[in-house]
Amino acid sequence: MSTIAAIRIPAEEFALAETLSRVSGVGFETVRVVAQDDDRVLPLVWAQTSDEDALERALADDPSVENEQLLADLAGERLYRMDWVANIETVVYALLEHDGTVLSASGRKDGWHLRILFPDRNSLSATHEFATDNGVTISLERVTDLNEGRGSQFSLTERQHQALLAAYERGYYEVPQEVTMEELADEFGVSAQAVSQRLHRAYRNLIENALVIGRPTDTVEE
């Protein structure tokens, strides 16, 4: 059964460590992470910073980065194509040896948070063991098995997933609304309050898993 692992790696043990330590307040969000071979990863990376000159200097000096290329320059954000060439052994191992897929990754001075899709739990265990053997500190923050439908990748229960889809398809999120909470409740055979609570819990799980990487949830409510 495919498994999604939310993991944390200390900033000093992953790519862009020197840049994160030198540029105050900088943050990174990957768009795509592809392993070219066993010693090089080619990501697309959004960098958020208020000091673009300091960022450019740090990237040029960072030993974990090569071939950085600026693709877009927006207010406070820059999109780069670059090669990661150091401190990436664990990610390369997961991608090449176990057919893993990096769904998301974000890095700040306090560490990198990644969500990686593995074919099964054995692949996750092997990657964790590989990291430990190579001196990389991996903290498992959440492990989700994809056995409850498509919504489970965002820690949604089946009921939450169904409620979100129904609300979207019936036009609940349109302006003006095409269906009321009471009408959705009648469709599910529950109270309007129950539907409201289900949607709010679904929003929380979506935001946490899609936008707030690395903050664990203790329980999943329906």
List the SSEs and their pairings.
Layout: E1 3-9, H1 17-22, E2 27-37, E3 40-48, H2 52-61, E4 65-74, E5 77-84, H3 89-97, E6 101-108, E7 111-118, H4 121-133, E8 139-145, H5 158-169, H6 181-188, H7 192-210
Antiparallel strand pairs: 1-7, 1-8, 2-3, 2-6, 3-5, 4-5, 6-7
Helix pairs in contact: 3-4, 5-7, 6-7
Strand order of the largest sheet: 4-5-3-2-6-7-1-8
User: For the terminal residues, how far apart are their CA atoms?
Assistant: 22 Å
pLDDT < 50 stretches: 213-222
Task: Report Rg.
Answer: 20 Å
Outline type: globular
Query: Treating each run of at least 4 consecutive H or I residues as one helix, how many helices?
Result: 7
Describe it for me?
The protein has 222 residues and is an alpha+beta fold. The protein folds into 2 domains: 3-145, no CATH class; 150-210, Arc Repressor Mutant, subunit A (Orthogonal Bundle), CATH 1.10.10. The protein is built from 7 helices and 8 strands; from the N terminus they run βαββαββαββαβααα. Strands 4-5-3-2-6-7-1-8 form an 8-stranded antiparallel sheet. The longest helix is centred in the C-terminal third of the chain and has 19 residues, at 192-210.
